[in-house]
TrEMBL record:
<dbReference type="GO" id="GO:0005925">
    <property type="term" value="C:focal adhesion"/>
</dbReference>
<keyword id="KW-0175">Coiled coil</keyword>
<keyword id="KW-0472">Membrane</keyword>
<dbReference type="GO" id="GO:0045202">
    <property type="term" value="C:synapse"/>
</dbReference>
<dbReference type="GO" id="GO:0032956">
    <property type="term" value="P:regulation of actin cytoskeleton organization"/>
</dbReference>
<keyword id="KW-0539">Nucleus</keyword>
<comment type="function">
    <text>Stress-inducible actin-binding protein that plays a role in synaptic and cognitive functions by modulating actin filamentous (F-actin) dynamics. Mediates polymerization of globular actin to F-actin. Also binds to, stabilizes and bundles F-actin. Involved in synaptic function by regulating neurite outgrowth in an actin-dependent manner and for the acquisition of hippocampus-dependent cognitive function, such as learning and long-term memory.</text>
</comment>
<protein>
    <recommendedName>
        <fullName>Actin-associated protein FAM107A</fullName>
    </recommendedName>
</protein>
<dbReference type="GO" id="GO:0005634">
    <property type="term" value="C:nucleus"/>
</dbReference>
<feature type="region of interest" description="Disordered">
    <location>
        <begin position="1"/>
        <end position="20"/>
    </location>
</feature>
<dbReference type="GO" id="GO:0003779">
    <property type="term" value="F:actin binding"/>
</dbReference>
<dbReference type="InterPro" id="IPR009533">
    <property type="entry name" value="FAM107"/>
</dbReference>
<keyword id="KW-0346">Stress response</keyword>
<keyword id="KW-0009">Actin-binding</keyword>
<dbReference type="Pfam" id="PF06625">
    <property type="entry name" value="DUF1151"/>
</dbReference>
<dbReference type="GO" id="GO:0030041">
    <property type="term" value="P:actin filament polymerization"/>
</dbReference>
<feature type="region of interest" description="Disordered">
    <location>
        <begin position="109"/>
        <end position="148"/>
    </location>
</feature>
């Protein structure tokens, strides 16, 4: 029976069966199930509704879109406070270093500086000296291997 109803509806249409302009549920047949409009899950969510409500209130008050919501301001304030606190702790840790640790740090910096100066000097040396040093290293390595 339902298939015969569908064929009757198709025959009665003057527009050639265009489903978009004349849906099946308009004819008022009580046997047909009328479709319900689906809810948009984004608009139905509580967070979306709260955000929309906040935007409307801000618009009514005349606040610009560039002003931040209260939650975002609080979170940024906490992040800023946390960073300041971490910097203070680092500075206190540096102040609390023992004299021995400070001296080690100075020596380490001096050694790094000396290594950088040596690298610069090696870069300025002529290439034949570099090649000669490499040859000496390879000759001593091969000589040691022969002795072993």
């Amino acid at each position: 029976l339902p298939a015969s109803m569908y064929t009757e509806i198709q025959r009665d249409r003057p527009d050639g069966g265009n489903i978009l302009t004349h849906p099946d549920y308009i004819d008022g047949n009580p046997d047909l199930i009328k479709p319900k409009k689906l809810l948009n899950p984004v608009k139905a969510s509580k967070s979306h509704q709260e955000l929309h409500r906040e935007l409307l209130m801000n618009h009514k008050r005349g606040l610009g879109m560039e002003s931040k919501p209260e939650l975002q301001r609080v979170l940024e304030h906490r992040r800023r406070d946390l960073l300041i606190k971490q910097k203070k702790e680092e500075e206190e840790a540096k102040k609390l270093q023992s004299p021995f640790e400070k001296e080690l740090l100075k020596r380490h910096q001096r050694l790094d500086q000396l290594e950088k100066e040596q690298e610069k000097q090696e870069d300025h040396a002529p290439e034949f000296i570099k090649v000669k040093e490499n040859l000496r290293r390879t000759s001593t390595v091969t000589g040691d291997e022969k002795a072993a």
